[in-house]
Amino acid sequence: MNPGNLIVVVGLPGAGKSTLLKKIRRSITGICVHDFHANAMNDLTNVPSSRHFRALVEALVAGHDCAIADIAFCVQERRDNLCVVISKEIPETKIEFKFLEKSFEKCERNIRYRNPYNPEPALKKLRDFYPQYVIPKDAEIAPIWQPSTSPPKGVEFLVRAWNTSLGEGDEVKDEEEAIRILRQAVELDLACAYNVLADWMVSKADLSSNSLDESEKAQTQSDAMEILKEGCRKGHGACFVQMAHFYEAAGRKEDASKCWRKYFKSRTFLNDEDHELAHLLDYDYGSLVRTEAVRYYFRAIRKGDLPEDKEAMFLLLPFRNEILEDISDFGTFLSQTGQSDAAEKNGQLFAFVKKSFEL
């Protein structure tokens, strides 16, 4: 059996290594690892100390193509060391380096886009690695990923509906009209509109409980669920999160956990597909990024509103570093903005999540 080949994505912080890896993942059968050297054994920088090294070798030996990335590979010496080690372990394996464009300005813009709470740690790494990143003259260079500048269809209806529901700007407060407008955003298949519409329908029914009988209230909840199911059928994995909220509120913890697992398996979560829309909407208007969803998930487990779920933890394991980094950065943001009580609770959440990954 011929061994698998190895693709190594090389680029600065914010260049889009994760985005490129997501595309590569579809065409390989082996492991696909972002921060290859993260949490290395004894914090050593040599290749065999990576916690992913043995799994990588085993996958390559078994004939599976694999892909890895790490900002350390911006340094020529680290790339050379990788080639030496892999060639020694599996001489027939071919290694292909994919280099991302070198642009400080574009990387900085992406870093601030990706982490508005605390971009400084990533910016420091960018400053550190930028001078060391030298792309070979004969290498093909992939462009740095940049967010779209044009809003998707339906955004204008979402914003107008939101303002109508609150009576903000020039809009007269009218909840019925807000729901009607929001349905137009759903008809245009705007991802987060499904969740917002379902949530508004159920909330309105709850607030109108004195004027609605139980059958009418149940019908509204059923209609809201159908909207979410339609969103799921169209590939909007975040709808599983709203479904989980509804089941959790109804005390159906196991069903809520099943929805969370479906979300963690969805393309929406794996590719963080809603991130660009959330940034465009300034993380408002019911938009959702996966790190926010995960924070809620662990808070619910910590409070006992959801049961611990080993299968879900296994699904989240590849994102461990991202999750912990996000919670830490959010805590820094809370501290810097004078929200000391919230920052303390966030610190407790960080410790709980870190321990959960160790079990």
List keywords for this structure.
359 residues, mainly alpha, Rossmann fold, 2 domains, five-stranded parallel β-sheet, 17 helices
Distance between the termini: 37 Å
Q: In percent terms, what proportion of residues is strand?
A: 5-15%
Structural class, from helix and strand content?
Answer: mainly alpha
- Please count the helical segments: 17
Kindly state the percentage of residues in helix.
55-70%
| Poorly predicted runs | none
Please give the radius of gyration in angstroms.
Answer: 23 Å
Please, what is the average pLDDT? 88
Overall form = elongated
* Whole-number tally of structural domains: 2
Would you kindly provide a written description of the structure presented here, covering whatever features stand out?
With 359 residues, this protein is mainly α. The chain has two domains: 6-142, Rossmann fold (3-Layer(aba) Sandwich); 155-307. Helix content is 57%, strand content 6%. It contains 17 helices and five strands. The chain has a five-stranded parallel β-sheet, with helices on both faces. The two termini are 37 Å apart. 34% of the residues are buried. The mean pLDDT is 88.
